[in-house]
Amino acid sequence: MMGDRSNIILIGMPGSGKSTIGVLLAKAAGMDFVDTDLLIQSDQGQTLQTIVDERGYLALREVEERVLCRIPRAGQVIATGGSAVYGETAMAHLKSTGPVVFLNIPLATVRERIGDYSLRGLSKRPDQSLEALFDERLALYQRYADLTVDGEGRTQERICDMILASIPN
Ligand SMILES: Nc1ncnc2c1ncn2[C@@H]1O[C@H](COP(=O)(O)OP(=O)(O)O)[C@@H](O)[C@H]1O
Ligand SMILES: O=C(O)C1=C[C@@H](OP(=O)(O)O)[C@@H](O)[C@H](O)C1
Ligand SMILES: [Mg+2]
């Protein structure tokens, strides 16, 4: 099946369900799954948290952009990290490989799901609040989305079904 279908690319804030819903989508659609956070870690031989702690949040964004640009065109479900949208070239590449789906959840739900974000290796300016990061990113997620799915109050299975119903195969 790989090679003859478009990718499906998931974007959104940390906690929006990209990694977990991505697996469900891939199983339901008979596609492969890749989590770009894991690609970054194996490329660098470091955890995301270590990259941010030792080299800074901009280093993570640079590495992320390079890794995303190498994603092949074959049919895979791709869970990106929340900061993927800072890479303009990477997003142009990903969009050329298939539909980009924005998993949209409110700030309060991001807070609930991610807990103490200082321990999450988030790619954000140290002085930036989560609220400011959310606002900055919302505009970027909306810019790149081909499809937006509201995840609030919905199960992962329901969100998966909604995405499959909206994407031609
Ligand atoms: N629709 C949902 N309803 C309830 N919990 C969810 C939902 N989507 C994701 N979660 C939970 O939120 C957490 C973060 O999900 P994850 O897939 O890792 O998000 P991301 O990859 O976008 O950061 C996980 O514990 C996951 O089970
Ligand atoms: O939003 C972010 O800045 C990040 C989100 C993480 O991925 P998830 O969105 O899958 O949690 C991971 O890429 C890294 O810790 C940076
Ligand atoms: Mg994830």
Automatic annotation (TrEMBL):
Localization in the cell: Cytoplasm
Coiled coil: none
GO terms of biological process kind: amino acid biosynthetic process; aromatic amino acid family biosynthetic process; chorismate biosynthetic process
Pathway(s) per entry: Metabolic intermediate biosynthesis; chorismate biosynthesis; chorismate from D-erythrose 4-phosphate and phosphoenolpyruvate: step 5/7
Cofactor note: Binds 1 Mg(2+) ion per subunit.
Major subcellular location class: cytoplasm
Record CDD domains: SK
Single annotated GO MF: magnesium ion binding
Reactions listed under catalytic activity: shikimate + ATP = 3-phosphoshikimate + ADP + H(+)
Domain of life: Bacteria
Transmembrane feature ranges: none
Alphabetically ordered keywords of this record: Amino-acid biosynthesis, Aromatic amino acid biosynthesis, ATP-binding, Cytoplasm, Kinase, Magnesium, Metal-binding, Nucleotide-binding, Transferase
Residues annotated to bind substrate: D37, R61, G82, R137
Residues at which ATP binds: G15, S16, G17, K18, S19, T20, R125, R154
Entry binding sites for Mg(2+): S19
Cellular component, GO, one term: cytosol
Protein family according to the UniProt entry: Belongs to the shikimate kinase family.
Name listed for the protein in its UniProt record: Shikimate kinase
The organism of origin for this protein: Tamilnaduibacter salinus
Gene: aroK
